[in-house]
Structure formats: C-alpha cells, structure tokens
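User: I'm writing a tutorial on reading structure tokens. Could you give me a worked example: one chain, its sequence, then its tokens, then a sentence or two explaining what the tokens reveal?
Assistant: Sure. Here is the example chain.
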Amino acid sequence: MYNLKLLTVLLSFFTCTIASYSQNPKVELPGTQVLKFKSAINNHDYELYIELPGSYSDTTKTYPVFYSLDGESEFPLVSSINGALCYEGYVPEMIIVGIGWQDDANNSRNRDFSAIAVAGDTNTGGAKQFLDVIKKEVIALVDGSFRSDKKNNTLYGGSLGGFFALYSLFHEPTLFNRYIVCSPALQWDGEITFKYEKDFAGKNRALNVKMLISSSQFEEELFTVSNYKKFISQIKASKYDGLQLESLVVAKMSHASEGAYAIGRGLQFVFSKPEFNVDNLILDKYAGKYEQDWVITHTGNNLYINMFGGKAKLVAETNESFYVKGAPVTCQFQKNANGRVIGYSLSFFSNKAVFFKKLN
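And here are its predicted structure tokens:
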C-alpha cells in the first residue's frame, strides 16, 4: 500500500513538472523558419527547416544551398557548425535546409531512405519516390522561395541518411555537386550500394562532385571486414573524372557521435578554396609597406601579412586574390594601367573592402 501511495505521489509530481515545463516558451533558433507541404508524389507530409544567411536581407546576391537529411535532429547541429566555419572564413554564407517529416520520423526515414521494399512492410522501399520529392518539390520550393544560386547544392546524410545520400549520388549524379556522407549504412538492403556504384561506373566515366565520406574508430573496430574501407577502395578504383574524394575515420568516436566532427571537416573540404601558385616575381611586387602600418613580406614562395599580433600567411586564389586560412580575411591587390602595384583591398567578415595604398 505504501509503495502504491509513493508511486502515486511521484507520478503526480512528474505530471506537475511536465505541465509546468509545457507552460514555458519553446526554444527556437533565431533567423529560422519552417515550410510545410504535402507531397504530390508520395502523398506524405514534409516540413523544411530554413536558415537564411545573415546578409540575406541586406543584399540581392544568390547563395549556395546545404540540404540536410533528418532535418528535425540534424538541422540545429548543421546550423551551429556552419556558423562557426563561416565566421572563420572556411565556407561561404549559404542557405541551410533541413528536410524533415510532420509525422513519425523513425518510420518515415526507414520508408524514404531505404531502396528495396520488404514484403508486408509499408515503411520500406521509398527511396526512388523520395528522391523525386527532393528533386521536383523540395529543391523547386527552395529555389522558388529564396535566392539560391541554383547550381551549388550540397547533400548531407548520416547512417541510413548516408545510405540515401549515396543512392542519390548514383541515381541523380548532377542534382548535388557536394556531398557529406557520415557513417553510411552500407549493409542496408543487402549491401546494394556496392552494386549501384559498380553499375554506375560501368556506364559513366565522370562524377563531378566533391565528397567526404566518414566512419569512426570504434565502429570500424567492431567489424572484421569493414564495409566502409571496402566502399572507399571500390569507388577509388573506378577512377572517375572530376571526383574529389576525402575519406575520414574519426578517432575515439562511434557511429552517432562522429557526425559533428565529420560535418565540420566535410564542410571545410567540399567548400575548400583553391591554392594557386603565384610566380615569385609577382609576389615580390606585392611585398612592401602599406598605409596604416600594414606590411606584406615575401618569404620563400609565400606572402605574409602582419595581423593578429603576428604574421598570417596569404594563400593565393588567383594571381591577385588571396585569403587567410582560418580567418575571415580576403586581400585583393590592385594595379594601375602600367601594371604597377598601387595597393590592396582588405576585407574582414565579408564586409565592404577597405583600400590601403602601397607606400614603397
């Protein structure tokens, strides 16, 4: 009897606690919005979590789009990681779209991400239709509602979402030009991803995408034969023209926990800027003193600029344009009609560039 009374009290307290919490305002990510729609393709209800760049309302420029699968769980993580990388100049500003469901996410993801229908299970085999939903409805809705550049689309997926990302790659290879695939469920549907890649390679020589595929240390240690390593070997052996691939095994992490680090590294890789080799004779012309005590030095094959209490290396993107890795700094050298260097324009945090005249 005593135990029953105690249980009743505890349940009452728990119910009151839940009720008091439910009366508090919900936490919302600032600068975000939600779009909901019912698909005309598979008759399921979806919602898109949208984050626009900070400069969106101040300009008329267009932006690349980052599409995240499992939006209800991954969208806040992607938003946070992207914000830090954008602040440090690793990635450009972009529109972030989390693709989620209005109903049961677990059953919905099994249905939409899996490629082969299992007899008697309606929550399987929806990948083909879901890819059509993304292509014809999701991307169309985003492109029609926001200033996307309509040419730079990234797809991110983890686990079963990673399986679907690779399904997308081999069935609609031009829909996205960047991929981040974390711990893909390569065992799914009888390891059919290996067949998809083999069939694709038999018909195509080009695969023009930048892609990071990751796994984790503890996950890899569980298996005698690693499907991850097997897939990396297979796709590299196909020697696709245009494929830029980076593989990553995250140390001291496992299947779910490796995602945060891999997303960050993936964003860095798929949006990495070129490193251009500039002739030393040209670099010599840039070296010198500039207004407001700015100094450019030329050492070896590199230029350095005095900032942050030390010297930052200027990495060349072209003969005239340079950037600093890990800092939101760009530098554009200016010449007169005679080809003489007259100064450079320096930009911080994508703000309006400031011109500094060369003094010697």
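What the tokens reveal: The two ends are 92 Å apart (CA to CA). The chain has two domains: 29-270, 280-357.
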